[in-house]
Amino acid sequence: MSMGKPTKIYAKDNPEVALKVTKGHFSSDRFHINYYIDMTSLKMRRKDAQEVAKAMVSRYVSRVNLDMPGNISLAGADMQQLMASLATKTPIDTIICMDGCEVIGAYVAEELSNVGITTLNSHHTSYIITPEFDSTGQMVVRDNIRPMLKDKHVLVVLATAMSGRTIAKSIRCINSYGGIIEGISVIFSAVDSIDGYPVNSVFGVSDLPDFRLSDPDQCPDCQNGVKLDAIVNSYGYTVLD
Q1: What would the pLDDT profile of 213-237 be if each residue is shown by its tens digit?
Q2: Does the predicted TM-score (pTM) go above 0.70?
Q3: What is the 3-state secondary structure (H, E, C) of the chain?
Q4: Which member of 16, 79, 106, 187 has the lowest number of beta carbons within 10 Å of its beta carbon?
C-alpha cells in the first residue's frame, strides 16, 4: 500500500482551522486522487465548524465586497470593523449545504449576519437547505422547497470542489428554479471558478501543491502499477485489501 500517515495543514490566516490530509492512491466516484482530504471534524465538531464558517465568510466578503485597489493590511478588530462597514448590501436568503456541511452552513448564516449581510425574505432569517439528488447526480427540488429558492439570493456551501461538474449541474438547477447565486464557499477547491462564479475556498491547491486529480484511464499511479489504497467519498473512506 502507498497510503501514508495523516498530516495537518492549517489555514494561512486562521490556525484554528486545520485540514487533515493523507497521501496515497484513492478512487472517488469519478476520479483518482493522490490525497484523501479528511473533513470529518471540520463538518461535525462544533468549534471547528464555527471556525470554518468564519473563514468562509471572511473570504466571501473580501472577494466580493472588498475588491479595492492596492493592498489592505489589517488584522483582528480592524479587519472585522472594515468588513462590517463595507459588507455587501446584497442579502443572502438561502444557504444550500452539500457534502454534509449543514452545521457549517448554520454558522455561516450567523457570521453573515454578524458582518451586516442581511436577508430579504418575509421571515427575516436564512433558510438552510440540504439538497436532494437523484441517481444521475441531478439536484431535485420538491414543491415545499421551491419557495426557498425562487427569487432568493443563494450561497452554496460545500466541502470540496474538484472538477466542478456536479456543482455546475446544481447551479443550473438553482437558476432554473429562480434562485440567484451570490457565491460558492468551499473548504477545499481544486478550481477557481465554476460556470463563471468565483469559488471562495478556505484551502486550495496552493496549500497542497502536489495534489493531483486524474481520470481513471489517465491516472499516473495506475499506469505505474500502484494499487488503490481506498475508495473515498464525502462520508469517508474504505480501505481496500
Answers
A1: 999 999 999 999 999 999 998 888 9
A2: yes
A3: CCCCCCEEEEECCEEEEEEEEEEEEEECCCCEEEEEEECHHHHHCHHHHHHHHHHHHHHHHHHHHCCCCCCCCCCHHHHHHHHHHHCCCCCCCEEEECCCCHHHHHHHHHHHHHCCCCCCCCCCCCEEECCEECCCCCEECCCCCHHHCCCCEEEEEEEEECCCHHHHHHHHHHHHCCCEEEEEEEEEECCCEECCEEEEEEEECCCCCCCCEECHHHCHHHHCCCCCCEEEECCEEEECC
A4: 16
